[in-house]
Amino acid sequence: MSTDNWTAYADLAASGELQSRVSVLLLPAPIGGSADDVRKGWPSYGAPSPRTRAS
Q1: Disulfide check for 12: which of 18, 32, 40, 51 has CB 3.0–4.6 Å away?
Q2: DSSP assignment, residue 53?
Q3: Is there a contact between 26 and 10 (Cβ–Cβ < 8 Å)?
Q4: Which of these, 42, 40, 13, lies nearest to 26 by C-alpha position?
Q5: How far is it, in rounded angstroms, from Cα 18 to Cα 30?
Q6: How would you classify residue 9: left for phi > 0, otherwise alpha for psi between -120 and 50, otherwise beta?
């Protein structure tokens, strides 16, 4: 599981480069996972922080 798309969106928004709004499906459990998998996986996700860009 990865939050790369979410982080990239946050990076673009923070730098003022976000030209369009997108939707990304975030699954906090493996495909085919149970409701218990979602409940266990959800806490590992937090709001992304924009990465610091190298100058």
Answers
A1: 18
A2: P
A3: no
A4: 42
A5: 29
A6: alpha
